[in-house]
Amino acid sequence: MDRQNRAGVKFGGGGVLSGEREKLNRKERLRRIAMETIDLNKDPYFLRNHLGTYECKLCLTLHTTEGNYLAHTQGKRHQTNLARRAARDNQESAPTDDEPTKVEIKKTIKIGRPGYKVTKLTHPESGARGLTFELVYPEIAQGLRPRHRIMSAFEQKVGPKDPAFQYLVFAAEPYETVGFRIPNSTIDRGSLHSTWDEPSTLFTLTLYFAQDSA
Ligand SMILES: [Zn+2]
After folding, report:
1. For the chain, which terminal residue's Cβ has fewer other Cβ atoms within 10 angstroms, N or C?
2. Cα(112) to centroid of ligand 1, in Å?
3. Which SMART domains match (predicted)?
4. Closest alpha carbon to 173 in 209, 141, 129
């Protein structure tokens, strides 16, 4: 009798627990799948906002972590909105006589941020500090070479206007322009060089800071 009772409690408790665990497992599984298959830098709907949280530009939802956003992309709501968007885009791209400018507009649609890697350097001879930026643009418009620009904290409009920093900005259509905040030390202009490897769509820029500015 007693034993039966305990078994019943145990079973009931286990049922609740495993239900929650299942939900967690499912979320974790979805997050992993998403991390393996989705490059957030190429996701046009992924947005890091200025509050340090993440937004889905498609569903207008807020997410506290990248993992949470990734799980969201596998969810029903996002998938449904994706399907709707795709259906609408297909309709829009069908040629119509009364809207001849549509094709032109489509060309300028931004497809997200490029993948990138930043590496800190120390010059082997002078000991000067430097940085290498590597950006990949697999979908870059044909014949285009990525451009870069150095902007002061006051010139740019995205980050805080902190005089301790300056910004290195990269642009290449149809990608979103990306900016990197770097120390506002004098850049040794002679050391700055960039390469564009068209076959691998890899843009590399290396610079060193002038030593007296360190
Ligand atoms: Zn979404």
Report:
1. N
2. 15
3. CactinC_cactus, ZnF_U1
4. 141
